[in-house]
Amino acid sequence: MYKVVIVGKPNVGKSTLFNRLIHEKRAITNDEPGVTRDRLYGEVNWLNNIFTLVDTGGLTIKDAPFQKKIQIQVNYALEEADLILFITSLKEGIDADDHFITKLLKKQKCKNVILVVNKCEKNQYYENEKQFYSLGFGKPYYIASEHGIGTGDLLDAIISKLTNKIKRTRIKKDRLPFCIIGRTNVGKSTLVNAILNEDRVLVSPIAHTTRDSVDCDFSYKNQNFTIIDTAGIRRKGKITNQVEKYAILRTQDAISRSKMILLVLDGSEEFNEQDEVIGGLAYKANIPTIIVVNKWDNIRDKSEKTMNEKIKIIRSKFKYLPWAPIVFISAKNKKRLHLIFDTMQEMHKQLNIKVNTSLLNECILKMQSLVPASMFKGGRLNISYATQVKGQVPTFVIFTNDPKYLHFSYARMIENLIRNSFGIDRVPITVYYKDKNARIRGIREEQNNG
């Protein structure tokens, strides 16, 4: 799919235009300059013409924080661009930053450039038209991205430029999307870069350098993946500005778009309460999760004994994720990364396991005959039938005389039986209990009431 890259100085509305064209609020928008730091990717469909849109950080000649790394990100984007949208602002007019970007585009011989003048809500732009023409990119397109004014004409111009390049059919949904979550500065962005072998995401020792979710596509052993890097999460009491609050919402959105989660921990530090809180997000989402212990290179004693001690601590702190595989890696040194994807492929197979109905019933009814349920809430649970149904994780419905007689310990026994009997030990499963009146109650509800 061909790429259209958005460039411009800070605070001219690049991210607002990005969100408008992809019809999602993927990029964080705020009046504070420099909110977008990484390059973000989204898909645009205009009259059945589809292309990838790339948002980039604001370029300036000033010595602003992260500016050098932002320029590296922009350079990467320009190298892969089929068309560039150079965004300027009617409100601010042309300044030194715009001339700096003009020189950069011409130095890199970017021939396919559309000049866009944003923030034209009042339609009083002709009096300043000469200054925009002076940049040398021809007739500018005037828009107000916040209100959608002029964006249709801009999209027509983009399609016209890419007439012979646009792919007119959607990419097959054959990718396995997963997100990386964890508290700040545990090495999430370093892990993304190590996986992709490029500086796709800014890496800095300063916490909170990633504030958007960043989607990246790649393949491993004939499996296509989409990796969604997310902003690090801090304690609620430490969330001091609106942008970081939006970043947390992006993390939750990234989880909702994922089929798997990598929960990254810092193996060189003590695990803390915030690690557990973030792990709880994975549990609540009921999405297969790998616990990734990063910075293993900082551990002097890398013996099996040390590793087992760490595993024991993790299991005690993340009791709600007993099925989650644990892998030890060094993202910085790109060591043991293959374990992540080998594990993901094993988990993917388990997600697609189809259990034969007769074998499932034989297994559960045999257990019931050997270990009948105890009396609970005035009755004894009696299972009559079980079946697997469609779900994002292996999901089973068990028909009983009345689910209110189910004790959580018996539910746990049945879950462990299904896992052990059918080789589902690395992903979550869901078991519902249904009575003759079709009242459904899940295991988690029973545990909460029990």
Automatic annotation (TrEMBL):
GTP 1 binds at residues 8-15, 55-59, 118-121. Residues 2-166, 176-352 form the EngA-type G domain. Keywords: GTP-binding, Nucleotide-binding, Repeat, Ribosome biogenesis. PROSITE patterns: G_ENGA (PS51712). SUPFAM superfamilies: P-loop containing nucleoside triphosphate hydrolases. GO terms for molecular function: GTP binding; ribosome binding. It comes from the Bacteria. GTP 2 binds at residues 182-189, 229-233, 294-297. One of its GO terms (biological process) is ribosome biogenesis. The keyword Repeat applies. GTPase that plays an essential role in the late steps of ribosome biogenesis. Belongs to the TRAFAC class TrmE-Era-EngA-EngB-Septin-like GTPase superfamily. EngA (Der) GTPase family. Associates with the 50S ribosomal subunit. This is GTPase Der. It comes from Candidatus Malacoplasma girerdii. The gene is engA.
